[in-house]
Amino acid sequence: MTPDEDRIAHLYDAFNTRAFDRLLAGMAPDISWPDEVEDRRLEGLAAVRDYFETATAPLRVRHQPLVLFSPAPGWVEALTRQTVSSAADGSLWSSMRVRHRFTLRDGLITRLDSEQNYSAPTYEGVERLLRRLYEAINGQDIQTVLSCYAPNARCQDKLEGGLIAGAPAIRAHFEHLFATLRVTLALRDYRLEPDDRVRCRLQVETRSANGRLWQEGPITAWYRLEGGLIVEQDVDDSGDSEP
């Protein structure tokens, strides 16, 4: 995660806890922010503060970032799960995926653009994560592989059965995998499911240490992402599965 991506992740935490002083401290004085209640733009810190403290008072809006990435210097994009509930009784009013694009200058946000109800089946930040993971597995680059998983990630163990939970267990799993097998993965396609899981179709070739072909064919993998990292993973290696 880049420094700007880390800043944005922390600002989501501030927003979710309504820590507005901390949130506004991450914005430039000439901030331009979307008012999604009245469909207009807010200009300047005073207008943004008033919006947070008054217009959103009856609401509890939370954003769970699924993935963050930087398409270019000074930009951070995020795909989030946004939930809006009543501040009075906690009843859920809406839940949708939202695409955010932050423009930053000298580490401060100068503009936020928001696309509500993002329904496209793909997202560039998700694809970047998947390709980084598969290239690292193909190259047996264990440090890069581990950087794709959250410290509390949980994965089904298709080699020996059972559950792999936590960073030490995931490291041990890949160390054992790389020591005994040569795995080559190619991403065929993927899509975002309505429940925010990512469903991927892969072509896999697995060979033993002496080069004997052990497995070849299509598999399907499911991932759940939080903050740009994999927190859950499952794999169906029984054959082709349409996404």
Helix content: 25-40%
Name of the CATH architecture of the largest domain: Roll
Q: Rg from C-alpha positions?
A: 21 Å
Q: Give a short account of the largest sheet.
A: 6 strands, mixed
Order of helices and strands: HHEEHEEEEHHEEHEEEE
CATH class of the largest domain: Alpha Beta
Shape: elongated
- Taken together, the total number of domains comes to 2
Kindly estimate the percentage of residues that lie in beta strands according to DSSP.
Answer: over 45%
Q: What would the average pLDDT be, to the nearest integer?
A: 92
Q: At the third CATH level, what is the topology name of the largest domain?
A: Nuclear Transport Factor 2, Chain: A
Strand numbers in spatial order across the main sheet: 2-1-6-5-4-3
Please give the number of β-strands. Answer: 12
Q: Which residues sit in consecutive blocks of at least 5 with pLDDT less than 50?
A: none
